[in-house]
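From: lab user (bench 3)
To: helpdesk
Subject: output format question, protein + uracil

Hello, I'm new to running complex predictions and I'm not sure whether the block I got back is the full result or only part of it. Here's what I submitted:
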Amino acid sequence: MADFSKFENIEILTHPLIQHKISRLRSKSTGTAEFRKLIHEIAMLMGYEALRDLELEDVEIETPLEKCMSPMIKGKKQAIVPILRAGLGMADGLLNLLPNAKIGHIGLYRDESTFKPHAYYCKLPSPIEKRTIIVTDPMLATGGSAIDAINLIKESGGKKIKFMCIIAAPQGLKALSEAHPDVKIYVGHVDRELNKDSYIVPGLGDAGDRIFGTK
Ligand code: PRP
Ligand code: URA
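Helpdesk reply: Thanks, we reran it on our side. This is the complete output you should expect:
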């Protein structure tokens, strides 16, 4: 596997539960219902790691025995921004951890011959500049979609941005890390390479089609 330890903005989440669930996700015998469930579960496990730096503040709580000061998440200013379509499955999983987060949507599709992303939708919650923004997409292949999505968020004023993907190709991971060095990237697994159709191999196939049962 390529060595990404020198890239300060990349964190590869090697937790055994995440790795086990990614293997089940890859299998071509995993059907739509199980695929969706696994995407939710992996997003939650990744979120647990990626949200370690959420700010806390002490608030007064009254237990059945006495009052005490106890830490709770400060501000509640998070936004989850899935890249359509496949990022939606991860956003649902993250909402279990951050039920009050606002949701933005960025619509991008890859041209099947040039592999370049085309944007067709962008709606972000305001004030975007004050929010911690978690962009989700299970697949980081050439990196073009993630780079463009984050460009759109920055053009709208977004500043504190994290990106979460389940499987990345080495090329895409390097490209995203270099294009947006200020964005922390959380990755479940780095695969071998891209094939001639710019699909990640071994990968899991087309994530959007597997989540939504299309094709
Ligand atoms: C997939 C995937 C990413 C993108 C990754 O989406 O979910 O958004 O490709 O490829 P890249 O890193 O080379 O840009 P796709 O364009 O197939 O759209 P879909 O989710 O609507 O199927
Ligand atoms: N998009 C996918 O869904 N899978 C890949 O392998 C590459 C891009």
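A quick orientation on your result: The chain has one domain: 10-52+77-212. Let us know if anything else is unclear.
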